[in-house]
Write a structure and sequence with these properties.
single chain; 4-stranded antiparallel sheet
């Protein structure tokens, strides 16, 4: 409250002066202040100016903040700001000025800031005053002696500060994607005759009499078999038959049109017969036979002059017979399955304890 007292006393005790230039006005003001300082100092020190200052008091509640020595001004200050913002206005306008000032400062803390350059005239003109106040006001020694220097030694204080860092829980979702690739492969090339065997009436390493049987590559349905003459001295005959994979039907059946000219040592044939067979899940086996057959006519009745009046065709087997099995792996599909995981949760999993 003492600065207010000084202002009030200056207003009442100092007569008005008039100067022609700012320099003269400043000089006159300094002289006037110097001559009035002893009077004003005495008024302030003795308390005689108290009746002239509204709401003057020597027991302001804020003085307890210093006397208590706690050093904590933020809690009382926050309480003052909150009370002035939410409490009712004081009916005494002079008392309300304190909350008005508090609210003004609180609003200024969030207002837009501005920059004052070091070269601003306000700062440039203030530097000589703040650097050497006595050059402007003169020495205050002997004029006002109520304030005396005092050394205060405060004991060391231990202050514990605690902070906590936390992270709000959050729900994150990710995916683990399994891609399955199936590679299909065939045991043989579809549409080709992929394996064969020889079924012969005779073979001695350098000449042979017989047929060769081939298997057809297809993954399902009937089984295709191709039979053709394969004799050293030539011959004719070929046939393709389709049989049921499970039962081997239809069998037996004679494959016509086969013969060979190789009569060496009686090894010849003119007939090829399919004798049946079938397939399991993994393999197939079918039987074939080659043999020679001679056919003629047998007279069944004669007349009185020695002529045959009734006859019938008769055939008999001749040459060397041969029978053989043709076994081979059943054509089938193979499947190779491979898995590939796309783990899109790796970054989140790395954060788990």
């Amino acid at each position: 409250m003492k600065p207010s007292v000084l202002a009030m006393l200056l207003a009442f005790a100092i007569p008005a002066v008039h100067a022609d230039t700012p320099a003269e006005a400043f000089s006159q003001g300094r002289s006037l202040g110097a001559t009035g300082a002893p009077v004003l100092g005495g008024q302030i020190t003795s308390g005689a100016a108290a009746p002239d200052v509204p709401q003057y008091s020597t027991t302001q509640p804020q003085s307890g903040l210093f006397a208590g020595g706690s050093g904590l001004l933020v809690p009382p200050g926050a309480a003052q700001v909150g009370g002035c913002q939410t409490g009712p206005a004081d009916p005494d306008a002079r008392k309300q000025q304190q909350c008005d000032a508090t609210n003004f400062l609180a609003r200024r803390s969030t207002a837009a800031s501005f920059t004052v350059a070091p070269t601003d005239p306000l700062l440039a003109r203030a530097r000589p005053i703040t650097g050497d106040p006595t050059s402007i006001l003169g020495a205050a020694n002997g004029t006002y002696s109520a304030c005396t220097p005092r050394q205060v030694i405060a004991p060391a204080r231990k202050q514990i500060e605690v902070c906590a860092e936390s992270r709000a829980p959050e729900e994150r979702r990710c995916s683990k994607i399994l891609s399955v690739a199936v590679a299909v492969s065939e045991s043989c090339v579809p549409g080709t005759w992929f394996t064969s065997t020889f079924v012969g009436a005779y073979a001695d390493g350098w000449r042979q009499v017989g047929v060769r049987v081939h298997a057809y590559c297809q993954m399902s349905g009937t089984v295709g078999l191709y039979v053709h003459n394969e004799s050293t001295n030539g011959g004719v005959g070929s046939a393709v038959i389709w049989v049921d994979a499970a039962t081997g039907a239809a069998a037996p059946q004679l494959l016509p049109g086969f013969w060979t000219e190789d009569y060496h040592f009686g090894h010849w044939f003119n007939n090829v017969a399919y004798r049946g067979g079938g397939c399991t899940d993994d393999s197939c086996a079918f039987q074939f036979e080659v043999y020679g057959e001679s056919c003629g006519y047998l007279c069944e009745a004669w007349d009185g002059e020695g002529y045959c009046t009734s006859y019938s065709p008769q055939c008999s087997r001749a040459g060397t017979q041969a029978s053989g099995w043709f076994s081979f792996p059943r054509p089938r599909l193979s499947y190779a399955v491979s898995d590939r995981w796309d783990n899109q949760c790796a970054a989140l999993e790395a954060r788990l304890p």
